Each structure stands twice: as C-alpha cells, then as structure tokens.
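Request: Could I get any protein with tokenized structure?
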Amino acid sequence: MLTLPVDSLLPSSSWLGLIGLAGTWGRPISDRLYRFLVRLLDILIWGGELQGWENLPERGPAVFIGNHLDALGPIAAVSSIPLRLYPWIIADMVDETKAAAYLNQDFTERQLHIPPPFSMAFSRLLSRLTVPLLRSFGCIPVYHDPQRLFLAFETSLRHLEQGHCLLIFPEDPAQSPDPLTRISPFYKGFTRLGEMFYERSRKSLKFYPFAVSGVRRIVRIGEPIAFNPLNSPYLERLRLKDVLENAVRTMYIELHRPLLTPSYLR
C-alpha cells in the first residue's frame, strides 16, 4: 500500500527548547512577546518555509484549519503564519490535574518513547511547564462534554469579534486515517463558527485551509473558504467540512509529490 513519506515529529531533543519557553507564566502575553516566542519556536524546532502568502488575510477575523501531525503541526502553524493565532486545544492540556496523564499517553510514551515508570514522572514535570505556557498563548480549551463545549464557541466568537484569528486541527482520532496521507476525517463541529459568527455580525467568516509537511518543512496556505449564509445550516456545515478537508489533503499530497516516483503520479 502506498503511503507518503513519514513526517518527522519533533526533531531529536528539540522538546527541550519548548520546555525552555515555558518559564513560570500563566497569564496572557502581549502580541510583542507572542511574536518573540513563536520566532524562538521557529529557530529551535520548526525552521521551515511558508507557501501561499498571497492567500493570507491582512488581519482577522479568520479561522485556520490544518492537519495536526502530532506535536509538530501546531508548532509549525504558529511559527509560520505571521498573525497571532488562538488555538483550540484539548481541555486536559491546560488542566493542571489532567495534563500529566494526557501528555503521558499522547506524547511522552507514544512520541518520545520513554517507558514507564519514567514516562509518568517526566510527564508530570513537563506538564508543570506546558500548562502555563499554553495558557499564556491564549489557547482555547475544548471539552468533550456538549454543555462545556459551548464555552469554547463563546470564547472563540469573542476572539473573532475582536478581529482575532483561530487555529483549529479538526481531525477525529477515533476514525481511521486516509491510507495515503494518514490524515483522519475531520469533525464538522467547528464549522458552526460560521453560522454563529454570521448571526452576530451579519458577516461571512472565512476559513483558511493549510497543510503541514514535516518531511519537507513546509506550511502551505490555501485559498479561503467563506461561510455561505444562503445554504441551510446543516448542509453548510457539511459543505465547509468536506471542502476544507479535501483542500488540506490535496495540498498535503501536492507538497509530497516531488518525493513520489512517477508511477504513483499517473
């Protein structure tokens, strides 16, 4: 079965650079400090290229939608996109009581390959640094509980009304990834931002698809997809989800096309 080249995760030992950024924060940081920190992330971890500059907005409101690539996707996005981004994040990652367990399962053992019992001790230490760092970046916690999920939408809408840009990675880890790109099907819940923002502002929110290649160290921005208020809400959610998912997957394949043999490109 053909699959595209395996994208590298964080370069060896580069997570140490991420830890070094955490400090002892927890309060929101200024735009100036944000730009300084993402520049450090770019130097220490990402060091990649941005393509599709012509598709970027000068300012928000906007929602950027991309492939996750484990820990690398969010770092690549904030390092490359020259706008302040407010990412959606699993709520456990900014919960002091739950972050260690989540990091241990999703990052320490699976990506760093640190075995137990050392993995949990490392995750506890790491969480003491990452929780305040993620809070300082203005990450928006997303809950699985439908009632608490509403809080994420309310926070997101306040940001959009202030002209801010959101960053969302809507892959559903419970579904099998595409065998070629290893990108999982998208949730469609995030698309409700379009109709909710239109109800409040009477303006069509634009979603910007992007693809991250860890192998080639490239982030590519696609053309924006605008919410269409003339469609029924349900059909518009499906349309936005499908169009954005296909755009991300197509750009990802195009980024890796130089690495494929001619027989696979027919």
Remarks:
- The chain has one domain: 15-93+128-265.
- Helices lie at 15-22, 31-46, 72-80, 99-108, 118-136, 146-161, 192-201, 233-256.
- The longest helix spans residues 233-256.
